[in-house]
Amino acid sequence: MRNVTAVVAVPALILSFSAAWAADVTTTDEMHQEDAAPRSMTQVPQTHMFDGINLTEQQRQQMRDLMQQARHERSPISINDLEQLHELIIAEKFDETAYKAKLDSIAQAEVARQVDMARVRNQMYHLLTPGQQGVLNQKHQQRMNQMRQLTDMQPSSSLHAVSSK
Asked: How far is the C-alpha of 96 from the C-alpha of 150, rounded, in Å?
C-alpha cells in the first residue's frame, strides 16, 4: 500500500511543491501588500506564511535577500526525472523496480527542497519582532482551525452527495 501511495502521490507532490515554491517567491516579494486577493485554503499553508504581517522595509529586504539566496542554492526540479517516469509508464513491459527507484530519488530531492525552504522560513520568522511573531502564530492558528473545519466537513458532504443520488 505504501508503494502505491508513493506512485500516486510523488508526481502530484512534485508539481504542487514546485508551484508552492514559485508562490513563495512571489509571496515574499508581495508580503507588504495588505490588499492582496484572498487565497484558497487548499494551497500549501506555509506558502503564505507572512500574509497579514506588517513588515518594515528592512525586514522585507532581508526576506527578499533570503529568498534570492535560496533560489540560487536550490536544485531545480528535474524535467528529465519526469520524462523518465513517463517512459517507464509507457514502456512495453512495466519495470516496477525501476519506477520505484526513480520515485525514491525524486522523493529524496523533494524532501531536500522542502527542508531548504523550511530553513529559509525559519530564518524569516526570526527576523520578526516578538509582536509580529505573535500575530503570525495567531494567523497560523486561525488557518489551522479553518483547515480542520474543512476536513471535518469533507467526509460528511461526500457521503451526503452520494446518498442523495
From this structure: 36
